[in-house]
Design goal:
Layout: H1 3-15, H2 20-27, E1 31-35, E2 40-42, E3 50-56, E4 58-64, E5 70-77, E6 80-82, H3 85-90, E7 97-100, E8 104-110, H4 111-120, H5 122-148, H6 151-161, H7 165-168, H8 171-178, H9 182-191
Antiparallel strand pairs: 1-8, 2-7, 3-6, 3-8, 4-5, 4-7
Helix pairs in contact: 4-5, 8-9
Length: about 190
């Protein structure tokens, strides 16, 4: 088993372990994909064809509005799933972009094959549903932070969740993710004890 598949199995076991037979079927649909820094993986207007497993590197999902304002929504890094999940699960055109921020290594699984597994293997469907539920829970918590917390509180929460993120992600993207002006982000870096 490749190192990437071992990482994937550890993540899956953390969500909901699969039997050896189900794991073999699940593992068989993934293929390795390598991307360079700043490479678009998904573009707004296109359907997301793959569920990604991030084995190495950092990526982001972001949005552009009609006035070209940018909003960074999510960061992904090893070991986690990635991609534009709503476009993938609904097979509708994406409203978002998914790009690499650093050179990245993935495993990726195409929608038709994962869909077939979810329809024929209930434990795989349950594991994917549970993983999506965790993602939804995290998204709702982030919405609360954006609407109710001060910029300093949002910064502190981010560091509690992902203390290593300052070393992984360029600060301009972190500022955008937190909804903070880059100058104020620099001030927070100097103010908040890490």
């Amino acid at each position: 088993m490749t190192q990437e598949l071992q990482q994937l199995r550890q993540l899956v076991n953390g969500i909901r372990p699969l039997s050896d037979e189900d794991w073999e079927a699940f593992a068989a649909v993934w293929s390795r994909h390598v991307a360079k820094r700043k490479e678009p993986l998904t573009v707004a207007g296109e359907v997301e064809h793959y569920l990604y497993f991030v084995a190495d590197g950092v990526q982001r999902v972001y949005y552009f509005d009609d006035q070209d304002r940018e909003a960074t929504l999510v960061f992904t890094y090893a070991p986690s799933f990635g991609g534009v999940l709503d476009s993938f699960m609904l097979q509708l055109p994406s409203r978002y972009y998914y790009e690499t921020l650093s050179p990245s290594v993935f495993l990726r699984a195409p929608f038709p094959e994962l869909q077939r597994l979810m329809q024929t293997r209930p434990s795989i469907e349950s594991m994917i549903r549970e993983g999506l539920s965790h993602s939804m829970s995290g998204l709702l918590a982030r919405l609360v932070e954006l609407q109710c917390y001060t910029s300093e509180e949002r910064f502190r929460k981010l560091l509690q969740r992902s203390p290593h993120i300052l070393q992984l992600v360029p600060h301009k993207y972190l500022a955008n993710y937190l909804g903070i002006d880059p100058t104020n982000f620099s001030k927070l870096l100097n103010k908040v004890r890490i």
